[in-house]
Amino acid sequence: MVVLVIGGAGYIGSHAARALRRRGHEVIVYDNVSTGHAFLASGFELVRADIADVATLKSVLRRVDSVMHFAAHAYVGESVENPRKYFRNNVESGLALLNACLDCNVRRIIFSSTCAVYGVPVRIPISEQNPRQPVNPYGVSKLFFENALEAYDRAYGLRFAALRYFNAAGADESGEIGELHDPESHLIPSAMQAATGARREMELFGTDYPTPDGTCIRDYIHVNDLADAHVIALELLTGGANSMEVNLGTGRGYSVKEIISKIEEVSKLKVPVRIAGRRPGDPPALVADPTLAEKLLHWKATRSLDDIVATAWKWMQRQDSKALSS
Ligand code: UDP
After folding, report:
1. What is the pLDDT of residue 326?
2. Where are the alpha helices (DSSP H) in the chain?
3. CA-191 nearest atom, ligand 1
4. What is the mean pLDDT of residues 242-250?
5. Is 61:36 a contact under the CB 8 Å cutoff?
6. Residue of the nearest CA to atom 10 in ligand 1?
7. What SS3 class is residue 277?
8. Residue 181 binned pLDDT confidence (cut-offs 50, 70, 90)
9. Cis link prior to 280 (omega < 30° from 0)?
10. What b-and-e string marks burial along 287-301, b requiring 16 or more CB atoms within 10 Å of the CB?
11. 86, 138, 152, 220: the active-site residue
12. What is the extent of the structural domain holding 57?
């Protein structure tokens, strides 16, 4: 099958592109390379364009069977400060993309959704039964897209999988691709940068949460486990499965302090930490109930927190040595 991976030069999209190729699918990457990096898509045909560029998008959509859509802004904190940016790209351009899919008769789409659609969950672990009440504009923008997918399924027979990620982390075991944001704001790479001295310290956002050690709890899932789930979901849809909305997590949560300790253990370095206030929009704990994914996709995360931190560390060291030699 020919799959258009939109946002395939980004972190999760680049891992999904490789997972598709490993399964024998043909991949075209579509990315405006605004936050992604062309080298993450090396070895693939790369169309450098924005999803708002509907003419270019349609010319490529006519060549494919299915779409995986990763092209979105994805920072909770930034979305609180600049919601306009989030609604413009994730909602307006997202809708343009969906309409272009319909116009080009592409009726299978895998959507990169998020546990942020649940907001502050009523029950933990979070099953798909939790009400969707996002507490930040990022979550709102993703919920809008899910709602649009549901409506297009009912009205036009578009089949979709909305995959609600918990915290994507880690890097491909090859060390060739991984997380690379500028500036970096995610916990694991930020803490590693602090450990190596690439930044003076990391800020720990909030130590007064109602959790056992006072810091936020998240469900960290290896990016290649996520990528595998995307391929499975797409193959199921192709085989005639109904649309689905599924959590992708491990079912196990770790606090910020636990993550920092694991990074210190793997890197054998100290992570300099400065205690800061809470970051707006951060719920205290987000942990998946992965039962539905196991049932529908016959999939579960196989990589541990050790694998996540070890692969992220290998990737970061490789980036550092590349920077030194250039
Ligand atoms: N976090 C932190 N310091 C940082 C980055 C993140 O304390 O420099 C915390 C953040 O408050 C959250 C967790 O680490 O509780 C994961 O944040 P991240 O930005 O990695 O992912 P998010 O949960 O926002 O998707």
Report:
1. 67
2. 11-22, 54-61, 76-81, 83-86, 94-103, 137-156, 187-196, 223-238, 256-267, 291-297, 305-325
3. 8
4. 98
5. no
6. 205
7. coil
8. confident
9. no
10. bbbbebbeebbebbb
11. 138
12. 2-169+221-248
Is residue 280 included in any domain, yes or no? no
User: Does a structural domain hold residue 87?
Assistant: yes
Determine the pLDDT at residue 65: 97
Q: Domain for residue 15, yes or no?
A: yes
Torsion angles phi and psi, residue 78, rounded to 5 = -65, -35
Please write the tens of the pLDDT for every residue from 87-140. Answer: 999 999 999 999 999 999 999 999 999 999 999 888 999 999 999 999 899 999
* Residue 216 placed within a domain: no
Q: What is the 3-state secondary structure (H, E, C) of 175-212?
A: CCCCCCCCCCCCHHHHHHHHHHCCCCCEEEECCCCCCC
- Among 141, 192, 218, the mutation site with the greatest number of ligand 1 atoms within 8 A of its Cβ is 218
Q: What would the pLDDT profile of 56-102 be if each residue is shown by its tens digit?
A: 999 999 999 999 999 999 988 899 999 999 999 999 999 999 999 99
Give the CATH number of the domain where residue 75 resides: 3.40.50.720
Asked whether residue 323 carries a pLDDT value surpassing 80, the answer given is no
Q: Residue 28: what are its φ and ψ, rounded to 5°? A: -115, 130
Q: What 3-state DSSP class applies to 113?
A: strand
Total domains in the fold of the chain: 1
Question: Residue 181 C-alpha to ligand 1 middle, in angstroms?
Answer: 14
Is the predicted pLDDT of residue 194 greater than 80, yes or no? yes
By most ligand atoms within 8 Å of CB, the mutation choice from 217, 256, 262 for ligand 1 is 256
Residue owning the nearest CA to atom 24 of ligand 1: 76
